[in-house]
Amino acid sequence: MKKILFWPLLAVMFWLPLPEGSKPEWAMGILMMLAYGLALFWLLGYGLNRLPVTLAFQKARWFHVGFILVTSWLFIQQLPLPADWVKALSPLAWDIHSQAYLALGLPLPELISLSIDPFSTLITALLTLAYYLLFCLCLLLIDKPEKLRTFAWVLVISGIFQAVFGSLSTLSGLETLLFRDKTSYFGVATGTFVNRNSFAGCMEMTLAVGMGLLIAQLNDRPSENWREWLHRTLKTLMSNKVILRTGLAIMVIGLVLSRSRMGNTAFFSSLMMTGFLYVICRKQLSRGMIVLFVSLLVIDTAIVSQWFGLEEVVERLEQTAIERETRPNVATVTLDAIGDYGLTGSGGGSYYTTLPAYHDGSWRGFYDLAHIDFLQFPLEFGIPAYVILALMVLTAAWHAIQAMRLRRSRLMIGMGFTAFMGMLAIMIHSSVDFNLQIPSNAVYFVVMMALALLARYMPTPVGKVRQ
Fold it and tell me: Which residue range forms the structural domain that includes residue 253?
C-alpha cells in the first residue's frame, strides 16, 4: 500500500508548479484536495496496520508541534470570538471591525474575529494544513534510499520541464503559460508561473536537488594514477551523471533567462556558501567536488549563460540601487503595521486588506503581497507564530548540517546538501520577494525541510544512523 501512495505523491510534486504555481483559487483547491486525500488514505492504511510510522516522522516531533500550533492559530484567527477578547488582544482589529459596522449603520456584533479578513485567513489555514500533511507524507512514504533517490529525480525533472517550457516560450516568442497566454513579463522566462521571481524560486530549489544527486554520485577516494582517473572519467561520461549534469545546465539557462536579479544571486550565493559548509562538515575537498563547482560556476556562468543573456541580469543588478530609491517604501509601512498587530497578527492572507490603512501616498494602487516574506509573515501571523516558523526552519537547517557531517551514505550527504542549499536560497530570495506566498514554492520549501530530516535519520545499509 505504501508503494500505491508513493507514486501519487510523486505526481503531486510534479503537478503543483504547473497551474501557475498553484496560485489561482481553483489550483489551491486541487492542492488541498490532493493533500487531504493522500493523508486520508495513509490514515486508512495505518488503521489497517498496513502502513508503519517511520523513524524520520518520529524524530520530527518538534516540527509536528510547530506546524500544529501555527495552523491552529490561523484557524483561531478567523473564528468569531467575544468582542471584548478581541479588543483586549488586538485593539486595532477591534477598531477596524467597529468602523466597518458603523459605516454600514449596524451595531458591532458580540462575536468578531481577530483577523480583519476572515475568509482569506481561513484559506491560508487550510493551505497551511495541506503543507503540513505533505510534509508528513514525505516523511512517512519515503522510507528507503531508492525511494528518496526517485523522489529527488522527480523534483529535478519538474525543474527541467519548467526551464525548458519557460525558455522555449520566451525564445520562440509564443509567450504563453501552460493554461493561458501571458499577460505580463514578456521577453523573460517564467515557466508555468506568472511571475519570473516565483519561477526563479522554483529553479533554486530544483537546482539544489540536482546538486545533491550529483554529490551523491561523487567518489571521495582519490585516483591512484592517471589510468584510474581516465577510467573513472569515461565511466562517468557513460552514466546518468551526464543526463543530470545536462539537466542542471538547462535549469541554469532557465534561471538566467528569467532575468531575476535575486533569483540568480540567491542560487549562486547559496551554492557557494553550502559548498564551503560541505567542505567544513566533511573535512575534505575532493577532486570531484572541485570539478563540480568549477563546472557550475565557470562553464555555466561564463559560457552557457552568456549565450542566453547573463549580461542583462548583471545590468539589472547594477540598476537595483537606483530602483530602490524610487520604489514605494512599502517595507517601512509594513514595519509600522507589525508594531500594531505584533501579538496576534492581522490574519493570514490579510495583507491586501491591512496595507491601505498605512498608505502614505508614495505609490499607486494596492499591494496584495509585501514582496518581503520576512515582513509579511510576522504581520499576518503575529510575531509569536513567526518565531515558531523561524525556529522550525533553523532546526531543519541544523539537521541538514548534521546529515552532511555525520552520515556515511553518499545519498544522505547529498540530500543534506540539497536541503540546506534549497532553504538558504529561498531565505536569501525572500528578503526581497514573496516566494513562500506561492503555494507550489511553499510546498517545495516544506519538502526541503522534510529532506533534511530524511537525510539525517533514514536508515541505510551503509551503516547505522549516528545520533
Answer: 2-324+366-457
